Amino acid sequence: MLPGESWQAMMASLDNHFGDNAELDPQVASEIGDFLNRHAAGPDQGGYSARLWRSTRKVALASRITDTDYFRGKHHEITTAMVTENPDIGSFSRCDACHADAAQGAFDEHQVSIPGYGRWDD
Ligand code: HEC
Asked: I need a surface site. Which of 13, 17, 71, 77 has the fewest CB within 10 A?
């Protein structure tokens, strides 16, 4: 959901990964970097990937999916009580807390369930 240049910049600065040192063994970093390059958001990819890619074109370098206009637009109805103040979630970066199939890249808005609130019916 981020463009290749965002992932490359992130992998090149793992010593300061949002304030944490996330440095990896070079072999592991290389495998993850290859994966990210293969699956980065782009204009030719369908669905969420292309929409997120377009929404990152307005900023110099997007480093957080949650800061993109596309992400904000999709999540603007969700209150802080449901996320940051929710002991079962804590942060929007826990995609899988509400999107059970996030690991498979599935984010269908009809399949969302927010812990403590139940199914999202909008
Ligand atoms: C607190 C629960 C919650 C978390 C955490 C969350 N989402 Fe969502 N997401 C939702 C809800 C609810 C919707 C549906 C909003 C609507 O359209 O009414 C949604 C919609 C989406 C959609 C659009 C789906 C569609 O069918 O149009 C995408 C893509 C998405 N989320 C990606 C993510 C990603 C990526 C993350 C993690 C970085 C994330 N979400 C974290 C609750 C969450």
From this structure: 77
Counting from 1 in the atom list of ligand 1, the atom nearest the Cα of 91 is 5
6 class by beta-carbon count within 10 Å (0-12 exposed, 13-18 middle, 19+ buried): buried
Instruction: Residue 112: count other Cβ atoms within 10 Å of its Cβ.
Output: 17
109 Cα: distance to centroid of ligand 1 (angstroms): 7
Tokens 């800061």 belong to 67
Best probe residue, ligand 1, of 70, 72, 75 (max atoms within 8 Å of C-beta) = 75
d(CA 41, CA 45): 7
CA dist., res. 118 & res. 78, Å (int) = 13
Q: What is the CA radius of gyration of the chain?
A: 15
| Pair of tokens at residue 23 | 């440095």
pLDDT in tens, 43-64: 887 778 888 888 877 777 778 8
Amino acid at 55: S
Quote the distance between the C-alpha of residue 90 and its chain's center.
15
